[in-house]
Structure formats: C-alpha cells, structure tokens
Amino acid sequence: MDDWIDYYDSTHTIYASRLHRNLHFQVIARDIIGYISPPDAVVLDYACGEALSAAQVADACGELILAEPAPGVRGRLIARFAPNPKISVRSLDDLRNMKEKSVDLAVMNSVAQYMTPDELDSALAAIRRLLKPGGQLILGDILRPEVGMGRDVLALLRFALTHGFLKDALIGLVSTALSDYRQLRSRVGLQRYGETEMIAKLAAAGFTASRAHLNIGHNPWRMTFVARHALATPVSVNNR
To answer: In this structure, are residues 84 and 61 in contact, taking their beta carbons and an 8 Å threshold?
Structure first.
C-alpha cells in the first residue's frame, strides 16, 4: 500500500477537473450519511483521502474521525477542518491508541483495492476492535475480478455526462493513460474480490456481512459490503 500512499500524497491527476473532484466527495458523503444512525453516532472514515465533504458527514453524526495514512493529505485535513469541533484527524497508527468499542460506524471506501490481502486483514482487525457491539463496518467500492477497466471508464463518462464535465473527463482519461497512475496500476496492480470471497474474508475477520444493493459512489459495477461483529445481530441492507 505504501506506493499508493505516496501517489495520493503527491500532486496527482486522478480527477478530471475541480468539479469532478468536488462531486466525487459529495456523492461519497451522501452515501455515507445514509448509513449513519443514530444522529449522535461516532463515525470513523478509515483512509479517508481528501474528504472534501466531511463537514456534511459531521453534521449528520456526533463525532467524525478522519484517519489518513498520507502525511501531506493528513496535514491538509487538519488545516481544513480545525474549526470544526466534531471532526478529528488521526493517522492509522493513532487508531491503536483509541479506546476499544468506541465507534458506531466505520467506513473504508475505495481503499481495499490498494491493500495486499494481509494488509486488509490487519485493517479489518483494527476496525473490529474499535467497533461497539452492534456497530457497522461499511466496506465500499470493491473491485470485482470479472469487471475490467472499461467499466470504470464507462462509469466515469456516465457520471461526467450527468454532471456536465464530459469534455474534461475525456481529456482526463487521456492524461491518466499517460500518467504515473496508469504505470503504478500496471506495476503494482489492484486487488479484486468476488462477492463470496469478500464475505468469507470478512467472516474470517470476525464479521457477518452482506453485499449492499448499491455501491458507495458513482460506479455501479463495484461492490459495497455491510458488516457487523459475528456475535451481533445480522445486518439488513434492504435500504441500500
């Protein structure tokens, strides 16, 4: 995961435009909010990235913890959200010092693909330690083995057409094809999981899980899973 952390901590061109970037985070925030209950919940966003719309999430919960491994991104988060008393920013290492069973909802969105299977297992163990009995883990934007990059491109173009940045998206796709991102993706690769495989992986980590009906974010060909402690009541995902 270190190579990807370094990439996202650099000046990258993963977003086609400022509008694309802003909409990306707005949609994720909207979808995360849909999982928050009760309104005083403590929410952990694991490897949150720039989290530009985190203030919206914070408005919907009691406390929002943004945990981010990239030091440059983390510094920007601290500066951006310092005035907001409901938001705290931490490194992933800081999570080891958090109190057990202190989080109602944990979200790990568009992160698992950048981790080795062992790194994901470690992250799931860390999150499970922090979740309260009955707390939920939302594991979003999981890449499927049978779905290639073409569907990612199509999802982006549909999103761009709907929101008015199609020209920028087309230019951005060309830039990405020539960028460090494409080279890194070719060299390091991205982890992909089938639905059954991910449910089994979550079970091995001590969770009961189901696939949500809708993925977090704009890509309908990726998957989101909703999980609880294995000893807790099985989760229902009928609302997603």
So the answer is: no
Write down the domain spans for the chain. Answer: 2-229
Whole-angstrom Cα distance, residue 214 to residue 225? 9
The structure's pTM equals 0.88
Q: What is the pLDDT of residues 124-144, one digit of tens each?
A: 999 999 999 989 999 999 999
120: phi then psi, degrees, rounded to nearest 5:
-65, -40
pLDDT, tens digit (0-9, with 9 covering 90-100), for 56-113: 999 999 999 999 999 999 999 999 999 999 999 999 999 999 999 999 999 999 999 9
Q: Are 177 and 101 in contact (CB under 8 A)?
A: no
Are the C-beta atoms of residues 234 and 203 closer than 8 Å to each other? no
For domain 2-229, say whether CATH 3.40.50.150 is its number.
Answer: yes
CB 172 within 8 A of CB 17: yes
Q: How far apart are CA 240 and CA 236, in angstroms?
A: 9
**Selection from 171, 117, 109, 170 nearest residue 142 by Cα:** 109
